[in-house]
Fold each of these.
Amino acid sequence: VTPPKTDLPQGTLDLLILRIVGLEPIHGYGIAQRLQQLSRDVVQVPQGSLYPALHRLEKRGLLAADWQPSDTGRDAKFYRLTSKGRAQLKEETANWARLTGAIQLILRDAKGGAA
Amino acid sequence: VSRRDAEIDDELASHLEMAMRDHLARGEAPREARRRALLELGNPTVAKEETRSVWAWTRLEQLATDLRIGARILWRAPGLSATAALLIALVIGGNMTIFSMVHAVLAKPASGIGATRLVTVGWVTDGEEHPVTSYPNYVDVAAASRTLKPMLAQQFGRVVLTPRDGSYAVQGATVSTNYFDTLKIRLALGRSFEEREGLSGTAGLVAVISHHLWRERFGGTPTVIGQPMTINNHAATIVGVAPPDFQGVVFSEHADVWMPFASYAEVDGQRQILTDRLAQAVFMIGQLAPGVSLSQAQAELATIADHLPHVPGDRARTRTVQLFAYSATAAGDSLVAQRGPWFLALFSIVTALTVLIVYGNVANLMLARAVGRAREMAVRQSLGASRTRILRIFVAEGLAIGSVAWIAAAIVAFWATRAIPRMMPPLDGQGSRILFDFSPDGVVLGYALLLILIGVVCISAAPGLRAQRQALQPLLKAGEQGIVQGRSTISNGLVVLQLVFSVLLLTTAGLAYRSLSVLGASDLGLDTSQLLLVTINTRSAAATPQANGALLDAIVDRLRPLPGVRTVTYARRPVQSYWPTEQIAGGVAGQAFAAERDEVGPDYLRTMGLGPVAGVDFGERVTHQGAVAVLINQRLAEALWPGQPPVGRTLRLGSYAQPVEIVGVMPDAFYNGYRRQPDANFVLSSAAPQPQEMTLYVRYSGSLDDVVPEISRGLRAVDGRVPIVYTRTMDEQLEGLTWPIRALTVLLATFAIGSMLIAVMGQYAAMAFTMRRRVRDFGVRMALGASSDEILASATREGLRLTGAGLAIGGVLSVAAAHGLRSMLFGVTPTDARTYVGVVVLLGAASLVACYLPARRAARIDPMQALRDE
């Protein structure tokens, strides 16, 4: 039984990619797998938008990439974080924490008011 | 770009491979593993395109890609693409050609002129426009004006030139000394005039000759500079040779000799024209000073004209100026200059209409193909191509067709504008052709580009819109026909639109043609058949008006008894676009009138095929001494002495109110050629004119080839010093006056017929296409018992319904358009029945054929075959 899937909120995919790539250099398929595992299958990444997102980040200079042999033996494109990407990750993570904290506050207060 | 593509492909492939391996590891069958891996990735085409589009950084790059796609699509359907490009190329090429010519005729300066921002100064006396003014007026205006600087003056005329080897009649102009400098013309040889040569009292006459004359008469040797020759019996020295492409500022009056105005007047004993403000002689062109607009110059010149000295005896109440941009034809009271704006307006309408017709047609072609490709587009959309993307494909196709068509159109236009001048008649009888440069310039190319861009929008919008509205499902289902059943409103709408434009164009061209045919020779009121015009020059043979009169009488006496000659007369001015206007006074109330005047010889009316309404013709002899006799036309007689016999009364003629006796009344006719006002007044006088160019009118019988040599022998026998300037028939003369308009009208008509054919072809294509789509429908009906004749009738009727709609809408619009153009129509009403009936019959017949042929094919199908094919 698969748990219900949730679409990612707009703009969060970039943050998640940065986070995962920040752990170790990794290829696109690996990122998709890791996202699924880490979110316990809740986050369904539309894989059609994964590669445009990766290339967009690469173009912005947040990610760098090179071709290395993968564990299948075939060459795969491995992405890693640039220093600019690392700074961006830090800033985005802080932003996200602030935002979710604020949303939590609102949700909790509203609930209390209604009760 | 392609390396990036390969990399994205590799990346996605490695992704798929890894995903498949994981699925296999979970124990899935290979086929299932592949399916699930693909499913997870989503639409690979979309993923690839979107990933690639991250890197597509400029719109230009996208445009290039689109163009490449467009070109590839076109390449796959060469027949249809070529047809579309050819149709557009032809119509745009044709338009460019006409636009180039109209532009050249109406807007360009005469060839060889380097100066820009030139302005022609026209004069308006009591509301009537005249191209000329007096020399002292020119001097005063030129000295006072700050907005038009410099300003030149010229007077055109024919002269007898006598170099060492004989006498020749050539065209010449007397000009202000700044003439060549103002026009920025660099002489091929020698020098231009010096300022002192323009002052009276200088010794000796100098002249600049044309390149053509230099080559023909002076052997093209440099020693011509400083060489003496005789012009109109006056010794002159050649000081310069004009460049080869320059032959004067007005295209119909090209000159071979130029002399300074003032010093020529001096040696010619016409000193009075330098001071007489009533002697309307010179034509003026000025250059706008830097930063000055035409309206500023107009305002300044109007003020200057107001302050010109008043002359005792001048009956004109108001004299003012009217400036207009100079062009080789916008000079003088010529028919071209008058009708120019009319043709320009008409041309704009025609252009818009023909182009729209062709675009409607090509759009229909593209639409027909888009229907055939509906399945392909549906597949593309289902694979994730966005609707914008699909529209872009159509635009790309349109752009590719447009680019090819533009280049082809430019080639057509360059070729045509070079070919057409070779077909034009020489304007004068000396074999020199008009120097016209019709080739398209930047303005014309830009104009064509604009038309093409509009076309690209039209031809991509129709199929594009269709694709937007299309439902995908039925097209993708296996076994379903790739073609949607039913009728296409867009396509039918386009056919009707084309027919409407066609009707508009045909009626416009028809009305223009009818206006022109109203200007036909018969409507001059003269008998123009078997009438020969022989222009001679008496400058070298006679010195005074009296001697000139005697010479002319001697010539008439000599020619009259020749075989084949019925009557002979002469006139100071032949039928031409401009006769000078004189003020006349007399009549019951003593009021003043303006009338065009000519000096003519014996038997004038008889030679013109007319007779006097009252009184007498000039008879076999005219007196040159004592009281001058005149003939006036009926209209003038009615205006001066309503209800009373005018014969025997006295009329006062000209600025000096010279008394003359009316000997006869002549019928109203256009003695001088075509005029805008049909109610012109004419006065013919028997006074002998100054020795100059004269035209003999010979009414002949038999063959022209026999008469012409007899006449030249006769002239030589009277006086060998009288050269024949040129000989032509009256019909040729009239044709020379109207050919530009005739040519433009023929072009208009060609265009209208051409676009009708295109519209009808379009209807045929749309009809054939509809019939093909409805094969199944017809098959069913025939299987149910409909006869082939019934199918034929119903299909034809259906097609003709569009024709009916087109004719009705087009007819209404045409009447409205013609009402708008009413002031420009000559002699026909906006609802001219003949034009409309002609258009309905012509278009109806062509349209019937276009509907009948495809309908017949539809009626001939075998119902079983049709049903089985489904």
Amino acid sequence: MFVRLVYESFRRQQRRKLLAGVAITLGVTVTTAMIAVATDIGDKINRELRTIGANLIVTPQEDSLDVEIGGVNLKPPTDGAFLSESDLPKIKGTFWHNNITGFAPMLPVMVALEKNRKSQDVTLLGTYFAKPISFGKEEFTTGVRSTYPWWKVSGDWPEDSSRDVLLGERLAAQIAIKVGDEVTLSRRKLRVSGILSTGGSEDDQIVAPLALAQEILGKPGAVRRVYVSALTKPEDAFARRDPKSMSGPIYDRWYCSPYPQSIAYQLQEVIPHSHAEQIRQVAQNEGAVLTRIEGLIFLITLAALFASALAVSAAMATAIFERRAEVGLMKALGAGRLAVASVFFAEAALLALIGGLVGFATGGLLARQIGRSIFNSQIAIQPVLLPVILAIAVIVTFAGSAAAIRQAVRLDPVFALRGEL
Amino acid sequence: VSAPVPNSQQAFSQMSTVQSLAASRSRAPHTSMFLRMLIRAAVLRRGRAASALFAMVVAAAVVTAMLNLYVDVQAKLQREFRNYGANIILVGKDGSSLPGDALSRVESTLAGRGIAAPFALVVARTGDGQPVVVAGTDFDRVRQLDRWWSVSNWPSVPHQALIGVRALGVVSPKNQAFDLSFQGRTIHLTPAGTVQTGAAEDSRVYLPLSDFISWTDIQPSTVEVAASGSPQEVAATMNQLAQALPTADVRPVRQIMEGEARVLGKTRSTLLAAAALIILTAALCVLSTLMGWVFDRRRDFAIMKALGASNRLLNGFFAAEAAGLGATGALIGFVLGIGIAAWIGRVNFHAAVVPRFTVLPVVLAGSMAVTLLSAILPISLLRRVQPAVILKGE
């Protein structure tokens, strides 16, 4: 009898069920989409913040002091220590290798730029542009094109295996060189494949493939420093602790958190004789920006949850309120309060489950659409969320119906049937 | 029409509404009757009217808060991004120094819309002949401009130096007083503290600008400027700076400006998507509550119709009721929403969110549109039904 009551109610009162069902579905859709966006926004914004440039730097441990003004290093180029290029792929072998979005080695050398029989000293920066590298089974491409997205080239980026160079835009204007021209650098004739604009000191320099810079310097495999771009977690008091003073489990927790400090520590482990540290301008501020945006989206998700809960409650209350005559009839036929209430609650639960399932699916699609159109990447929805969302849907639907059901079972059947009240 | 039931207050008042409707039609002017019907309808069904108003207020509050945040978040995040330091750099053309009054000209051009810090750089020699880069600057300004500098102790008196962590081993390994020489002139300095940034600053020694100028006779070659505002405002500031200092090269720090523009754009788009979803939900909430409310009063509707009210009058009555509810709800909700936005601003950004009154007409118009829609929809359904059928309760 109970099952038949619920079944017939769904079959015959489709319009009323539709309104409540739509409200629940929409509420769950919004909730699912907002939760999915909120849980993923940190990672997405973190990746966007990587466009500001590398946040970690690796230098040789025993390096002599840099004497650098405006991008021109005045210390003798062969002075000081170097890192070995062959160690670099190991960066992808650290614990947090998935968080390392790219790295670019740098080797500045001084070259004599000959033009109209006059010679001037300029800095040539050897680096990777988009170099394919393999570590173990993993293949990846890295270089300044991914770590410094604000570098703009008119013309073509040089191949990493070529002997082409990029000329900084101020330098190119000063010596009147165009894309495709040849320049003479330390008695080597090289083709200029493009003009580079960065807004920084590179505008006065020449940027070339790393191998070419090593050849000019006469030190194959040498790298002066490596800039590493990594997705990190905002630093807190725990992050700033000295790993040497930690005991086992605490050390493990520190080591396995993607703090700038712990990633730097791991880089130091894999690259021999190196010193890695965070570039504070980038690393410190991205933590602050990330915390703000995450906080904002979290609060807005709360607002969305609240609005959805309210919409579901309002729709359920209306749906039950409209059925007072039915309640009167049931009670006149001898149904107790419990029997009436359980019919309504069963209906509410069924509605919540159906609406929840449909809403979860549409919410997942919506989150994916938001991810694709705003961030050009997927926002994946965790299947673990499904039971949680369904539970929330049932609870909110029950809470929304409770007041209306209470009022309905208290009705005097006489008035209810007459349609008064 | 049913007879009054003793304990049924509403049925009784419906009767009295009907009687007074008939009585007053002959005497009172039409408009006062209309108003009275509106007021009585709200007063007599207090509970349901209150729940409809509540839904309206909450919806309007959430929408106001969202719109306010959406408008304000750009300014808030731009402020966060100014912690990245300079977004404009002024350097002397062809490596020359800037004029002596460069900083004051920059300051007057900025007029409070940013911070500027001067830097003068030379390569000096330590006591044992090692080259080191020495910079003169204004520590009070640098402290505000470059907040990420990790400094153990800022210099406060003349002839105190701030030493980069890597330069420390070269100039003052035992933290003792040291000499630096530049073109035959020597300066005696005491270390105040160390600076660590992970960049070029680590290999430098910083002195107060006045000490630096009297020692080297060199004026600042660089002024770093953190200009506040939107990208358009920053571009305008750059133009003004170029006009104020024709001998300087004004360059944007593209790294910071492009990153900022990207992150701000994405955040705003996410916020817009969230706002659209929340507004949709809020509208649905109001719609279902109000439709229920109007449906619930189909007997009033039927009585009025049976007594000869025209369709136009009925539409007008329910529309006026809905508009009144929408306006009241929107106004209360607006105040509440401003409060919510201000709270979020305080909690998340540690700064007040300025109330945007431009949002009010939008919220008001939106609320009225939703309430009107939710009143007209059930009425157009009811109009097709004979009053007698409704009154019989079928």
Amino acid sequence: MHDGYKSWLILSSILTVGCGGGAVDLGGRDASGWADAPSQEADSTRPQTLFEGKALVFGLTVDETTLYALLFHGEQGYELVACPIDRCRSERSTLSFYPGAGVHTPLILMGDRLYWVEFDDIPGQGIASCPLAGCETPDLVLSRINSDIAADGEHVYWIDSDCWLNRLGPGSAEPEKLRDLRPAVLKPGGAAAPGTLAIAGEHVYFINASVEIYRVKKDGSEAATPFANDERIGGIGVTTEALYYSTTTLAGAILSCPLAGCEDQSRAIATNQRWPSGLQTHHGEAFWFNTEQPSMQSARGSLSSCRLPECSTVKEVVSNFPLPDRAVGAGSNDHAWVAINRAFVLWVEASEGDSLGSALRRLPR
Amino acid sequence: MMGRGFFFAAVMATCSSGCGGEVNLGGKSSDTWPGDGKTVEGPHAVETELVHQLFPPFLSSHTLAVAGDYVYFAGWENSVHPALHRCRKTSCRTTVEGLANTSDLIHSLQVYEQRLAVAAGRDTQWLGSYALPSASDKQVVVDNLPSLGGGLDPLFHGGFVYWSLPQDGAIYRCALPACAGGPERMGSWHNDAWLSGEGDLIFWLQGDGFIHRAAQFGGSPAQRLLADQTLSEAAAGDELDPSREKAGLIATSQGELYACLQSTGSRCGCNPTLSSGSDCVASVVRWPVAGGARETIVSLEERVSRFFVFEKNWRG
């Protein structure tokens, strides 16, 4: 086990004993690191800290009132928590606490359950889920997941290591294998390396090998077809009319494509973005990370947004914070570091100088 | 061979950088410092003079520049402090002085428009310049870049700085002095992106065996050129025949494009990508930058890892 985990356990024990079980106020936070957010009237331009402590926020999602987060506590394993967005210190509940170790994952709220990827290695071990009422041990549907996951309100979708499109519905104990994608994506000299997924209408869109976007019918009834090609595609987001993607380079861009077809219709709507990644769209707005200072020791960046579809003005929502992922260009599920509802945008930050710490902050939209 | 101006292609075989942290000038010294009197063997032999000892092995041929009366060189003064020095060309050993305005580690030096253009930084890098002759007035063109990669020097030319990023597999340019409009992507590369400029033409290699050339300071679409007898343009979609000569290094000067062509020749055991590839055959050739007859300057039965084009009698 990582030496850092041992240090974390020692520090955690000292903190727990010394603080009498969470009674000491740490700048508005309890001993676990959670805080109740001040009222919105306090300062709508200053980030509000919901969590800052010795755990890694590995998954994050929100609905209009409640925050859900998957925290990694080192050797102690994972904690799945839920709390009203304003009262995470005073009204937080632990839905599950279970052993495990892995990497960050999208956390999806669908119906009365939360879904995420359970990793024992790469590819992932399967889809874990837990009812909102809580679970002693999450349910696990086995599948060697080799992609991001996405949901449409009825199913969770992913691509497995055999390059099959899979989905899982509520109450299902087995994944539904829908279509073999290899005939479409595995060209001579090419690579079948599915990444980020997004769902719009009747299609699942996915990035392959960071240079092309395919789409396939959600029920797998038709072969996957190429939708767009570009360089270093780092994320996709969709609305009812368009697909948006980022090119994750120093001179990166956010581009849009009509869902009706992208051939020759790709249009850059934001340019001069630095390695934009983690693109998400929500209620007519796009959000993404820029890596402003690509240091492997303490990469720093910003969270930017713009109104769709024109993206005429790019707004820096929050600037110069330690990015949760230090790699330039980052991974296929960087969007898991951001959660958005109508009122707030929430994001995860790394803790400087602490590889087992992180922070969760928010700003009003 | 010398009809196109007083320029030599200096070929440095095998030792491309490092070289023990010594600053050497060609020409024999009467003093006896460690490293004095080292010679490069063979028909291109020179004797060297050690003028200053830096903390080895961090001095490299990337961090030497000559401007006016001075030689500028950068490296580590000791294991802790990076340093930029200068000395007079005619009496270097006794005139070495540190330049105070640099705390960053300098990765490359180039004299451009009466300034000392640099790639510098530690955890992240910046591209910019200092005023000559005393390295004052630091100006940053673009900063917060990840490592540019060993040996991949930026090129300041024609009002732009050009560089490649291993992380992106891309070549970029920024307009001087402050990168107004942000970095522009100019091309892609997959291996060593040697960059060189002449007039409004920018040349680079990108590991596919072709020489790439883009007019308008890189603003025009790139052409793929063959290192053949006339520097002809490859047809669209053509792949390079593995048996054809490939340029491993390029440089430009005075209207000429110089290239080092490396091949296995008739020998076994040559691997030009390995420093131990001593059984390779190399030749340095040149063409007019717009294309024309190829001229062979020198042929060597050695691997060549770096070469320079410089003015004869540059010591003045």
